[in-house]
Design a protein that fits this description.
With 190 residues, the protein is an alpha+beta fold. The chain has a domain at 7-111 and 161-187: Heat Shock Protein 90 (2-Layer Sandwich). The protein is 48% helix and 24% strand. The protein has helices at 7-23, 40-56, 61-81, 111-125, 129-140, 153-161, and strands spanning 29-35, 91-96, 100-110, 163-172, 177-187.
Length: 190
């Protein structure tokens, strides 16, 4: 693969590419975006802005709850699993289109983790609602979970509260790492 890419410009290019694709969707409006390191205060800001926008648009309460839940899970995942040295390569976008909310989470991961996440997402994308619920209950009973997760509950929660298929994009950064982007849609209809 050669020399590692210069991560920061590559990251900005990837974020710009994903933003451009999302804004090309029918009726797309960018509600909130953050690139680089963030703290819990940034999560609070995102929640406040997104929830107020949803209330102003008279979205159904169920839609708003799913939207907030997916946003919290995605950002918590980044806060818990990304080290300080890689935090500058993270990004989060929240958009609203004419038919749904779109959430994009980008963070660096080891290549092996990217492959594992892709496999898990493919598996979850194939499940129906009953299968997702059964799998969720099974994971809840898993005693191998830690404070940092590891059992896949966050990913499963996002799958249950968003529309499938969840979309993944993975761009290599080096021989060992990649930028992993997860795009989720929360439909406006109940």
């Amino acid at each position: 693969m050669g020399e590692p890419r210069n991560a920061i410009p590559f990251h900005h290019d990837l974020v710009a590419e994903i933003r451009g694709q999302a804004l090309a969707l029918d009726g797309a409006t960018l509600l909130w975006e953050h690139a680089g390191s963030f703290r819990r205060a940034d999560l609070d800001l995102a929640l406040h802005r997104v929830e107020n926008f949803s209330v102003d648009r008279s979205d159904a309460t169920a839609v708003r709850k799913r939207l907030i839940s997916v946003l919290v899970e995605g950002m918590e995942n980044i806060l818990v699993h990304v080290g300080e040295g890689q935090a500058a390569l993270c990004a989060v976008m929240v958009l609203r289109t004419s038919s749904d909310y779109r959430l994009v989470f980008i963070n660096p991961v080891p290549l092996a983790t990217a492959a594992l996440l892709q496999h898990r997402i493919d598996f979850l994308n194939e499940m129906d609602e009953v299968g997702l619920k059964e799998h969720y209950l099974k994971l809840l009973a898993n005693r191998e979970r830690t404070e940092r997760g590891g059992a896949g509950l966050g990913l499963l929660t996002m799958a249950r509260r968003s529309q499938r298929p969840m979309r993944v994009s993975c761009k290599p950064l080096s021989e060992t790492e990649a930028l992993f982007a997860l795009e989720l849609a929360v439909p406006l209809g109940d």
